[in-house]
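Next up, a specimen:

>
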Amino acid sequence: MDPWVSIGAGIVVPLILLFLGMRRGTLRPLAAAGAGLIAAGITFLCGWEWGLVLDAHLLGMVAWVPFRQSAKADACDRLGRLALLGPIDLLAPMAWPAIIVGAAAAFGGSDIAFVLYAGSLAASTADLWASEIGVLSTQPPRDLVRGIPMPPGAAGAVSPLGMIAATGGAWGIGLIGMATRMLPPLITGRPIDGHWGLLPLVCTCAGLMGAMTDSVLGGIAQAIYYCPRCERATDKSLHHCGTITQKVRGWRRLTNPRVDLVSSMVGGVVALVFWIWLA
């Protein structure tokens, strides 16, 4: 493909999305810079197809995190209308896909590596969409493990709207991945590998499993704290109000970014299993 396509997928599109994220109060500059470097590195190492799939993940973040921000501020435990994502919050879901890209570049890219990569990003995207859209559900969410009603935004809680959003986000990642593999040969007149038509289904399964892994870990193992000043639960040891919080359950080392990392790893493995089974 034209090198301008790689420049667009790896530099221009990410820069536009990340600039919009900072402009809308979603990203801190350091987080945006880190994500931009990862996007450029992925495209440089493995090609525009890989970069475009990451762009789809970033698009979801820029679109949904600020969506109805004032309505979500309390449930998502955010200060006012701001949703400033720091480097760890933004980059943790991208860490495992970046490692897959590094391995693919070192040992030679393959279809299996691309499926792993897409599945990991599908899980991260599904979790993001479920969290940002599901919290607006009019139906009370429930703990995925215990089945009891939970307040909106609680770790481990799921809602029907959140599951629908997770399905849509994961399917979108698979659709973009499929398009990058099938459109170029269609345009140039080369034979098309029909197996790539299964990628949206594979990514949907991977995304849902990754999102459910996030909910299960969030409900039983993730470190949860209590802020006595704000009288609310939080996943941070230092609340945004400046108060040192008290741990009430979970493993101290299992923070929300680490849960996101594990979920993306699960998504990649699930995608690989379904791909081998179906394709």
Remarks:
- Residues 160-188 form the longest helix (29 residues).
- The radius of gyration is 19 Å.
- The chain has a mean pLDDT of 90.
- DSSP finds nine helices and five strands in the chain.
